[in-house]
Amino acid sequence: MSTRRLHLNAFLMNTGHHEASWRLPESDPYSSTKIAHYANLARIAERGKLDSVFFADSPSLWGTIGRRPSGSLEPTVVLAALAAVTEHIGLIATASTTYNEPYNLARRFASIDHLSGGRVGWNIVTTATLDAARNFNLAELPDHASRYARAEEFLQVAKKLWDSWDDAAILGDKETGLWGDERLVYPADHAGEHFQVAGALNVPRSPQGHPLLVQAGSSEDGKAFAALHAEAIFTAQQTLQEAQAFYADIKRRAAAAGRDPDGVLVLPGIVPVIGDTEAEARELEAELDRLIVAEYALGNLAKQLKLDPSELDLDRELPANLPHEDEIEGAKSRFTLIVDLARRERLTVRQLIGRLGGGRGHRTFSGTAEQVADAIFEWFDDGAADGFNIMPAVLPSGLEAFVDRVVPILQERGRFRTEYTGTTLREHYGLARPENPRRREALESAVKGVLAHAR
Amino acid sequence: MSTRRLHLNAFLMNTGHHEASWRLPESDPYSSTKIAHYANLARIAERGKLDSVFFADSPSLWGTIGRRPSGSLEPTVVLAALAAVTEHIGLIATASTTYNEPYNLARRFASIDHLSGGRVGWNIVTTATLDAARNFNLAELPDHASRYARAEEFLQVAKKLWDSWDDAAILGDKETGLWGDERLVYPADHAGEHFQVAGALNVPRSPQGHPLLVQAGSSEDGKAFAALHAEAIFTAQQTLQEAQAFYADIKRRAAAAGRDPDGVLVLPGIVPVIGDTEAEARELEAELDRLIVAEYALGNLAKQLKLDPSELDLDRELPANLPHEDEIEGAKSRFTLIVDLARRERLTVRQLIGRLGGGRGHRTFSGTAEQVADAIFEWFDDGAADGFNIMPAVLPSGLEAFVDRVVPILQERGRFRTEYTGTTLREHYGLARPENPRRREALESAVKGVLAHAR
């Protein structure tokens, strides 16, 4: 058996995942709209031979702009720009199935897959905020089940569109003037509950066939969807035990759905804070936490817990009578994660805010590069992860520290690539290019026709 | 009065605007999905100091893939990639108001404006094909009037979103931890017939404020829309007289709408076929026409004329009993242009196909570089054009010929820039950055509040 290799994604966000990162002397508070900032980050990640970079997204302005960088460039156009200035690294963006039409979105991802030479991935989300709904003609957030039903059909349509050109459809025969073989275009011909899409995509089948499909929600609906469709899963777990349980659950669900569990990669988020010594790392983390404006963060926390800010006291634990996850509409798993973290470690609201400010519920790990590498191997070797979603607290310095100091250790131990061996994102993640089922259907139908004629 | 300067846009499409261009030995029939091809074209246009490059679009597969390159990358992601590999040239893409949501599209254009440093333009279309409607849950094409009513409101919402951040909204004050001034974010708060959009955009106001707004339809509804909103108009006229009439009509309509007519630039399309001698240019044009597969082109022509192909005879003129433009749903002005061209020059269907194959109804001009420059000046100086939409029959060679041989003549005569003098697309076209009306409204409201308090 060959050595199992780690997969690493860099989750890029403004000046870093710590909400106060923009206040450090090194940070440019205007970086969120600067493509040069993201191009620099993507190149650093590529220097470290990471599998991919990733941008989260929601089509609404989150909260207010008071205390932390808000607003960001739409991520699919950011990926397209980064494709032009990088050569190897995978490029993943979030896009919502609730607030897009499949023809438009399938087309954008297919286009980026072409222009990046097969490096695109789509983090499929259903978008759980009322703010977004109200930007798209709705007064209320559609409920969880109906959002996931739409997502299911959306993906079905998107796959039909990605497969609507046979890989062999383009002939380019200058002699006869035949550019394409019309028989090898398969219109979507989809008539479902949410979508009616008649035609073929107007983009030839892309290098990867389909973009890498990523999923990140951990609600019951989210896990069911991931087990059926996701090829990589970004997840947030705080403890080894939780992560092992999640990992085993996803792999079991994938197998039950008839999929190869090795084709569903689980990547927990980690916020590494790296220092020359453990004390230095802890001091950087503490400095960042001191820069959080507590009263402001309290408002955000109250919103996530569906409470009024007056119900929270900075120097006490969370109130006892919180709702159950089932009563929460949207961002269910985030809600439960926050409450579990606070209860387990008996954190005051102020302490909880510090923990959440660093990685919004993801695991924060402060230490030396060796310690970070050990923490990675512990989860990787103990059935909790196939790799990690790296969420630097500060960007670019936190990503540089990871790439220049942690990655060489992972490489020395033979568990991470020293050069890219493939050209596509699917190849980086060790995943196959999907066959085109439409072609088989078309061939079968043609064979039937010939047989009928022969009788 | 300073010398009036020409504006030049390069309209990029696959291997060129002539439908048989892909069959030339120099052409790569696979270029339509290759970003390197478009990057090369954009760099050639930038070498020629052109104002902009432009990509047309429709969210459907046009016709079949048999006889000419079909399918293309989604143009907003193409612009984003080109922004990363060019420095000066403007980047314009078509996008449909009928098959997009304003929040998504306003956001993508604002994002590309940021990442290009203020170089984006939007060609606003309502998309006149049944094929597209059937990709977006509709059984029929929405009628002309309702598409334009939606476009009108779409643009109104888009402007509210582009103006939803004050230019001064970001403070970036590390000392106090105040990143932004919440009072300087103005939610769209839009509740109309077609759209309800509550929030602010999640992208700060972009370098140009709004993208350059372009329009290209020449129906009555299209001209009315252009006069109200467009800053540049791509148009198709075959004769000087037609072009003068269109030009005068648009300028009059703009003035009647209270706009400065000089702020509405009219750019007729021209397909220049350039040779060392006139004979050489004509031979290149003839060679291209010989490569058209007539029977195939006949099917496309019949579709545009809403006829059955059997009603057309390659060696006769168009049938006498064609419908009137008013009876045509969608692409009205294209219909009339084709019929007028055929009737005026008494063309057989075969001859008409040759003329349309070159530029789909735009003016084709074959000659030496001097002759092309003269043809440009004739229209420019005679009240027919503020510049031109250059549509090379073959790409890249036709664009290279224009840039390297025609542009120097335009420059020598002092009518075209020799270096870029501005940094944004608006500056290239001599157009102002829009003020933010939301700011004035907010200030007035604040002043009223203070006065009321003072009483």
Automatic annotation (TrEMBL), chains A, B:
The keyword Methyltransferase does not apply. GO terms for molecular function: oxidoreductase activity. The keyword DNA damage does not apply. Its EC number is 1.-.-.-. It comes from the Bacteria. Residues 29-384 form the Luciferase-like domain. InterPro entries: Diverse_substr_monoxygenases, Luciferase-like_dom, Luciferase-like_sf, NTA_MOA. Keywords: Flavoprotein, FMN, Monooxygenase, Oxidoreductase. Pfam families: Bac_luciferase (PF00296). It is an enzyme of class 1 (oxidoreductase). Signal peptide: none annotated. PANTHER family: ALKANESULFONATE MONOOXYGENASE-RELATED, C2H2 FINGER DOMAIN TRANSCRIPTION FACTOR (EUROFUNG)-RELATED. Belongs to the NtaA/SnaA/DszA monooxygenase family. NCBIfam families: FMN_nitrolo. This is LLM class flavin-dependent oxidoreductase. The lineage of its organism: Bacteria, Bacillati, Actinomycetota, Actinomycetes, Glycomycetales.
